[in-house]
Structures are given as C-alpha cells and as structure tokens.
Design the sequence.
C-alpha cells in the first residue's frame, strides 16, 4: 500500500488540536488550572464550577461532596490542595460564609 500524504487541511487540524487542549476550557491561567480541567470537566461542564464564588470552607465541602455523593474518585492530597487553592483564588468569595 502506498502512503498517502496528509492534505493541508488535515495537517492544519492536527497542528491546532494540541493548542485547543492547552486552553484548558478557558479556565483562568494559574497553578491548579490543569488539575481542575482534567478532574472537574468530565462529569459536568466547567461552567458548573466557574459559575460559583465560594469561600475556602465551602469549596472544601464541594470537593468532599463530589467524592462522597457524586462518585468522583478520591483525589491525591497534593492534587486536591492545588485544586482547592485554585478555586479559592479564582472563584473565591470574601464575605460571610
Ligand atoms: C464523578 C462525576 C463528577 C466529577 C468528577 C465532578 N463532579 Fe461536580 N458534580 C457532579 C454532579 C452529578 C453534580 C450535580 C449535578 C450537576 O450540577 O451537574 C455536580 C455538581 C457540582 C457543583 C454544583 C454545586 C453542587 O453542590 O451541586 C459544583 C460547584 C461542582 N460539581 C464542582 C466540581 C469540582 C470543582 C470538581 C473537580 C474537583 C467536580 N465537580 C468534579 C459530578 C461530578
């Protein structure tokens, strides 16, 4: 069988695909961005996460709830910490809990 050259359009698609993945669903850049993207976007939209503005303790409760109620696999301790810090920094809430 003769190898076929990849057409220009297909090649362009191949080259731009990784760039789309690096966008991490449009999450704000920062430490923990990648962890949130990979751990929080396969059951529901990232909008479910980014629509919230919660205190540190409420984000902690959400993370527990995802594991205990929604069936998310338990996160490694440092992954959970990175996600928790990221959520508080970018989707936090300063005020009464
Ligand atoms: C195993 C599937 C699963 C994973 C993984 C998951 N969630 Fe959820 N999550 C759900 C379900 C189911 C709901 C409730 C229905 C809905 O809103 O889609 C939910 C709802 C939510 C809500 C809305 C408020 C609430 O309490 O219902 C937030 C905020 C949330 N998830 C955050 C996260 C974050 C942050 C992560 C990553 C650390 C995550 N989820 C990962 C399944 C999951």
Sequence:
């Amino acid at each position: 069988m003769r190898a076929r050259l990849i057409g220009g359009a297909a090649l362009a698609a191949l080259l731009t695909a990784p760039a789309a993945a690096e966008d991490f669903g449009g999450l704000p850049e920062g430490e923990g961005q990648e962890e949130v993207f990979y751990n929080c976007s396969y059951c529901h939209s990232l909008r479910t996460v980014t629509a919230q503005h919660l205190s540190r303790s409420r984000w902690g409760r959400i993370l527990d709830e995802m594991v205990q109620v929604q069936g998310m696999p338990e996160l490694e301790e440092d992954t959970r910490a990175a996600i928790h810090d990221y959520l508080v920094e970018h989707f936090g809430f300063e005020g009464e809990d």
Notes: The mean pLDDT is 87. Helices lie at 8-22, 33-40, 47-50, 56-68, 77-90. Residues 39-40, 42-44, 48-49, 52, 62-63, 65-66, 70-72, 83 surround heme C (CB under 6 Å).
